[in-house]
Specification:
With 162 residues, the chain is α+β, with helices and mostly antiparallel strands. The radius of gyration is 20 Å and the shape is globular. The chain contains 5 helices and 8 strands, in the order αββββαβββαβαα. A 5-stranded mixed barrel has the order 1-2-3-6-5. The chain has a two-stranded antiparallel sheet with strand order 4-8. It has 2 domains: 1-29; 32-160, OB fold (Dihydrolipoamide Acetyltransferase, E2P), CATH 2.40.50. α3 runs parallel beside α4 (140-152).
């Protein structure tokens, strides 16, 4: 009797997990291929086609020096120019991270920006234009490795900012 009850419980849990995950997956944002129409700064862009209902994208996995507000940070303008050179007018794929929310508190969609195997977050860190952030994104190890390369080579912000 206990074995039958245990088997029934396992079956119910498996069905609930499959149905529950299916619903969660449908509710999540899907990858979107679009064109970058504006570079706001080194980690924020505007795109032609929305993802998660937003056309302003906060790029996941990195943090670049600020270029707006009362305090323009060291290497902020350079990081923004580099981002513009890399992204403006480029057709990219926006890839959400299932470990993160779809949208941040400012209404920006959260996504990686890729073009085939090219990942903007990794390349910005490798070029010394961005620091890896500490939000536990799935690509964190790749980004931190690229950042370590930039630090070791004194590239970008690592050469001039303390």
């Amino acid at each position: 009797m206990r074995v039958k009850a245990l088997v029934a419980l396992v079956v119910v849990l498996v069905i609930a997990a499959v149905v529950g995950f299916g619903v969660a997956a449908r509710d999540r944002a899907a990858d979107v291929t679009t064109v970058v129409t504006r570079v706001v700064d080194g980690d924020t862009i505007d795109v032609a086609d929305p993802i998660a209902g937003a056309t302003r994208i906060r790029i996941l996995g990195i943090d670049t020096p600020e270029t707006y507000g009362a305090e323009v940070q060291c290497f902020g303008p350079e990081a923004s120019r580099w981002a513009t050179d890399q992204l403006l007018g480029r057709t990219v794929t926006l890839v959400p991270d299932p470990s993160q929310a779809d949208v941040d508190r400012y209404g920006r969609a959260l996504a990686y920006v890729t073009d085939g195997d090219w990942d903007y977050s990794v390349e910005a860190a490798r070029a010394g234009m961005a620091r890896s952030d500490d939000y536990g994104v799935r690509r964190e190890r790749l980004i931190k490795t690229a950042e370590a390369e930039a630090r070791a080579a004194d590239r970008g912000l690592w050469a001039v900012c303390q």
